[in-house]
Design goal:
Blueprint lengths: L1 H16 L16 E7 L2 E2 L2 E9 L4 E10 L1 E4 L8 E7 L7 E15 L3 E14 L6 E4 L12 E4 L1
Pfam family, one: DUF6452
Organism: Chryseobacterium formosense
Protein name: Lipoprotein
């Protein structure tokens, strides 16, 4: 009986201690996404519609249509690839415009619950085959959180 109480106590203690492991990384300690804002004639503007695809290595991820937005957040690759390809559409009839985002990565240990996060440095973007997206403008050239804008799309 004494052993049963001891085992039950240890089991209950282990359930209670692991209850909050899922929400450890909610305060922005995970790998950040890239923030992209939109400009028209040099001024920040809302765009009527945009569809973004991201090539994350294993497959191309459709991030869906965004309507009446001034910015989007795009995940970047977390493997050892030095670039991520983004594909942009503003209408269903338009061909996708490819934007290659190149960078160097740096892994940083956060905590036992979060593990390691990736920071991106020397971020540079190249536009190929412009359509409605006319040009790119660099913002902050490193990504360590999601607060600053890293890239501007000029329409």
């Amino acid at each position: 009986m004494k052993y049963l109480k001891f085992i039950l106590f240890i089991f209950t203690l282990s359930l209670i201690s692991c209850g909050s492991d899922d929400d450890i990384c909610e305060s922005g300690e995970g790998t950040p996404r890239m923030k992209i804002m939109f400009k028209r004639e040099g001024k920040i503007t809302d765009i009527d519609s945009i569809r973004v695809y991201a090539d994350l290595g294993t497959s191309i991820i459709d991030l869906g249509w965004k309507l009446k937005v001034d910015s989007v957040f795009v995940p970047l690759r977390v493997d050892d690839s030095p670039f991520t390809d983004l594909y942009i559409k503003t209408t269903t009839e338009e061909d996708s415009t490819r934007v290659r985002v190149s960078y160097t990565t740096k892994s940083i240990y956060v905590s036992p619950g979060c593990g390691v996060k990736r920071n991106y440095e020397n971020v540079n973007s190249v536009l190929s085959t412009p359509n409605s997206l006319k040009s790119l403008e660099q913002g902050q050239n490193f990504i360590d959180n999601e607060e600053k804008t890293n890239l501007f799309f000029n329409f």
